[in-house]
Amino acid sequence: MRNNESNMRTKKITKAVFPVAGLGTRFLPATKSIPKEIMTLVDRPLIQYAIDEARAAGIKEFIFVTARGKSALEDYFDHAPELESELRKKGKTELLDILKDTNMDSGAIAYVRQNRALGLGHAVWCARRLIGNEPFAVLLPDDVIAADRPCLQQMVEAHAETGGCMVAAMEVAPQRTSSYGILDIGEDGGTIVRAKGLVEKPRPEDAPSNLAIIGRYILTPKVLTNLNRMKQGAGGEIQLTDAIAEEVDTAAGVHGLRFRGHRYDCGSKIGFLQATVAFGLSRPDLGAEFESFLHELMATQKAAQ
Ligand code: G1P
Fold first, then answer.
1. Which of 90, 192, 242, 261 could serve as a FRET partner for 151 with CA atoms 20 to 30 Å apart?
2. CATH code of the domain covering residue 42
3. Is the pTM of this model over 0.85?
4. How far lies 296's CA from each of 124, 279, 289, 291, in Å?
5. Greatest CA span in the chain, whole angstroms?
């Protein structure tokens, strides 16, 4: 057992699951014909931010849990021979370089279908055969995290110390606990917290803390076994949080990492807008012009009030 756990600890994390089967109803009508993960912050789709973060953390195999209507995602990560040859002919090497980031080597990316929307836990479980018996990462592309050192990379480093399961964690407003998985804090080491429980979307009066799970996880394959039981949790869904909670009493346990960075909830309209403004302002090619536009706009609005 001990041996097994220490093997799990030293094993490199090379696989990541991206649950992208959601309908994106909060962004209708836009998501009527495009997957929400293709919606762009400035000029890059949401999914590209998650992929880049995973790559920076050493991920080599990318597993997408998809559903009907998501084929635009598959095309996005494929080569685009006509477009590329056109750009080559015109000598547009900069654009070709930008496109390179979107190409995945053959075999590096795999798609599994989630046929029914039974919850996040179920979505991750759908990838079980591709994950096998090794620790793996999960990234929810709705959570976009701007950080000097990418969030998943911070987690991989912290996980090398703790082993077991790890979630990204952040304090949220106490009245917002019912939108998140919440940690019941066992030991609080500041940056790393050991959890003695996890609760999915508790009402504020029932929440054990206001330390919330943000959509980055490093999980042991045991979590997939726990999901086999298909236990329904909050909202009648099969919750990933519940399957992770079953691991709190193991030797390596479950830890939360208070990551350094700013998280944008791009699953909500306001979060998406905030991210668009912040990412626009931070772009060397656009930031200055965009900033003076925003100043002008604010001044005009104030004057009109
Ligand atoms: C999911 C998880 C939740 C987590 C959240 C982070 O919820 O179930 O535990 O706190 O992501 O964004 P969702 O936002 O998909 O309802």
1. 242
2. 3.90.550.10
3. yes
4. 46, 19, 11, 9
5. 69
Q: What type of residue is 256? A: G
- In the reported structure, the alpha carbon of residue 267 is separated from the centroid of ligand 1 by a whole-number distance in angstroms of 10
22 CA to centre of ligand 1 in angstroms: 12
Please report the DSSP string for 77-93 in residue order. TS--HHHHHHHHHTT-H
* DSSP 8-state symbol, 31: G
Tokens representing residue 8 in the block? 């799990």
Is residue 70 domain-resident? yes
Residues in the ligand 1 pocket, defined by CB under 6 Å = 120, 140, 143, 180-181, 200, 212-215, 240-241, 267
Q: What is the pLDDT of residue 5?
A: 53
The tokens 């009109």 sit on which residue? Answer: 304
Query: What is the Rg, in whole angstroms, of the alpha carbon atoms belonging to the chain?
Result: 20
Residue 176 in any domain: the answer is yes
- Domain region containing 261: 2-295
Residue recorded with tokens 């193991």: 250
pLDDT in tens, 18-55: 999 988 888 899 888 889 999 999 999 999 999 999 99
The pLDDT of residue 77 is above 80: yes
Q: How far is the CA of 131 from the centre of ligand 1 (A)?
A: 21
In a domain, 301, yes or no: no
